[in-house]
Each structure stands twice: as C-alpha cells, then as structure tokens.
Design a protein that fits this description.
Elements lengths: L5 E11 L2 E10 L5 E6 L12 H12 L3 E5 L15 H17 L4 E7 L1 H12 L3 E7 L9 H4 L5 E6 L7 H10 L4 E6 L10 H12 L16
Parallel strand pairs: 3-4, 3-5, 5-6, 6-7, 7-8
Antiparallel strand pairs: 1-2, 2-4
Helix pairs in contact: 1-6, 2-3
Length: 226
C-alpha cells in the first residue's frame, strides 16, 4: 500500500482519570483509515511518548493513512498524576481510546503499544468492543498476564527483537501460540529490546503488517505468519 501524506506532531490535551494527559497526534490529510492509540514503555524506566520506537511506529501508521495518538501516561512529562502500578495506566489508555473514538467516529480503533505500553494496550484493547485490531511491539510476555488477549478473537500483530534481553522471544512465542487467528508475529533479526539501530525496521514491519488491514467498520480477517 502506498504511503499517504500526513500532517504530524500536533499537540493535544486529553482528560484523564487523574487529570490532564498530554499527547501528540499525527493525522493524514485525507480521511483516516483508522484511529490508533499507541502507548509508551514503563514510566519508571524512562518511557515516554518521545521514545524512539513509539515515534517510529506512530510515523509508520500515519504513513499508511491512520490518525495516530501517542500520549504520556500520568506522571510523565506534563501529564498530571503519578504512576499507578498499571491499573491507572490502563484507565489512561481507555481515556485515550475514547478521545480517538470521538475524533474518528466513522473509523475503526486500533490499540497498540511498546513494552509496558504493549501490555496496557493489548489488555485494554482486547476488552474494548470499539477496538478492532491490536499491535504489540516488544511485548513483555513473561512479566504480565494476558488473559483477556488470549480469549480475544481480534486480529493481533506482534513485532519482537530476536535478541531482546528484557522480554524474551521464547516467552513471546509461547504467548503467540495461545492466541486465536488471525495473528502475525514478525521477529527482527539481531534486535535488542529497544531495537537500537533497528527502529526503521520496526516501522517497515508496521507498514507491512497493517498496510492492507481494512479501515471500515467491517470485521477484520487475515492469516498468520510466525
């Protein structure tokens, strides 16, 4: 699918459960295929909406015609509140989904994230009836539970580094094996957890995986590739 011209970097304010959440939104010049919320890594380990992988994924999704919101969880940057152990961050993500649902009412919602943000996005997105497609990058499969995701029938796309030293690829493969179709897993050769020097490949994988996912409100379908 050819890339589309996008306007990007617009600052937005969201109303979160603990106060203001700051965000950035990239939007195509034409009507978006989907509205996407993409979450950042762990707030206590330097994660933010400016993390390189988060930036690269947002730009890749915008390039295939999506309206993409990345935002700072509570207590990060100018977002109000403080870290809440995951449950509060899930509430933040749900608020971001509501924001994008109002902004792109005629389009599907996709939920995604990187590392800790992937756990949040996959957990919230798999339970939200307005979300049709799930994307996880560097999923911490061995650190958290994914009961809602395992019981979900939504198309799920995972991207992982072959040499991820924090979130082991073996754990991701075990989680992936438990997911229903449609699903796809892309492993980036030689990449570590932060995809150091490989963030462009993450963007390429996003375009390859999601470039042809339908953008209307019909149920998605697709195959799997491990």
């Amino acid at each position: 699918m050819p890339e589309r011209v996008a306007r990007g970097g617009g600052r937005v304010d969201l109303v979160g459960p603990s106060g203001r959440l700051e965000g950035l939104i990239d939007e195509p010049l034409e009507a978006p295929r989907a509205g996407v919320v993409f979450a950042h890594p762990h707030p206590l380990h330097g994660g933010s909406m400016h993390t390189k992988v988060v930036y690269r994924v947002a730009k890749a999704l915008a390039a295939i015609g999506c309206a993409v919101l990345r935002f700072n969880f509570r207590g990060v940057g100018q977002s109000e509140g403080s870290f809440a152990g995951g449950e509060g961050e899930m509430e933040d993500f749900a608020a971001a989904l509501r924001f994008m649902a109002a902004r792109t009412p005629a389009r599907k919602l996709w939920a995604g994230g990187f590392s800790f943000g992937a756990w949040v996005a996959l957990s919230v997105g798999s339970r939200d009836d307005n979300v049709s497609t799930l994307l996880g990058v560097g999923v911490p499969a061995g650190q958290y539970r994914y009961d809602a995701l395992i019981g979900s029938h939504k198309p799920t796309f995972l991207i992982h580094g072959e040499r991820d030293e924090i979130c082991l690829l073996s754990d991701v493969r075990r989680l992936y094996a438990r997911l229903d179709e449609p699903k796809e897993l892309v492993v980036i050769d030689g990449a570590d957890h932060l995809f150091d020097g490989r963030t462009l490949e993450v963007g390429d994988a996003v375009r390859d995986l999601l470039g042809d996912v339908p953008g209307d409100r019909l149920r998605d379908s697709g195959g799997a590739r491990a």
